[in-house]
Design a protein that fits this description.
The chain is an alpha+beta fold and 265 residues long. The chain contains 8 helices and 11 strands. The strands form 4 sheets. The chain has a 4-stranded mixed β-sheet with strand order 8-11-9-10, with helices on one face. Strands 4-5-7 form a 3-stranded mixed β-sheet, covered by helices on one side. Strands 1-2 form a two-stranded antiparallel sheet. α4 links the parallel β9 and β10 (169-171). α1 (38-55) runs antiparallel to α3 (126-136). Mean pLDDT is 89; it is low at 256-265. It binds zinc ion. Zinc ion (ZN) is lined by residues 77, 80, 85, 87, 180, 224.
Length: 265
Amino acid sequence: MAIGYYPRGCLQGGVELPTTGPTWQVMRLSRNRNWGHPELVKFIERFAPLAAKATGRKGILIGDMAQPRGGPLPFGHKSHQTGLDVDIWFMPMPDRVLSKEERENIKPSNLVAADGKHVNDEIWSAADVTFIQTAAEQPEVERVLVNAAIKKELCRAEGNNDRSWMSKVRPWYGHDDHVHVRLKCPADSPNCEAQPAVPGGDGCDKSLDHWFADWILHLKIPEFGGSSAGLKLKDLPPACTAVLNAPASPASAASAASEERPKAR
Ligand SMILES: [Zn+2]
């Protein structure tokens, strides 16, 4: 169950996304953040081949999901606490299985130009539009967060096409080398707090301009748009105290102890 709000909650009974699938590979394995609500894992397993087919790429690279029990992350994000958020790199999955070292060290490609106002034309391609659109079109997806320069490019590229999918694609700090896909509260999680619905429309209006103000462009936001450092257990929903204090189950203790663990969930 997802408990609480995306930036203030936890995850009970989270499951692990296998680190290597036919059309996905998990990056930064040392972080142990490839956990999520079963609906999130199911979503990734369904979306990865869909995105590969739509873009003509081999697959997707998965960044952070959640910790095994969700909760505040010691660095990198404010959200990702309820097992319903996943970062997916823009950099396509290569045609081979990456080593553990490569997954730790490869730098994701940044699709935004140095001025923060445009995409980097040297690496931006139509497949990136398709990739974002495919994510936004999935019914279980609540929002897709991208850098404002990327949102601006989507507005330009889509011209007179059907733009109804674009309302879910929202600008946010960072997100220049990955998209952040957020799922709606699943039916099995009565204590999951829904995010207010996205305002209608394609978002290609004046509200976008604010992101290109000098002071916003020069804000120094930690890695992916904030951190939850400082958040205490008492700030989380009461149900999270039990989840985060529960002793490790024998199964999860064994899996944490073994490096090359079987991918059974
Ligand atoms: Zn994220």
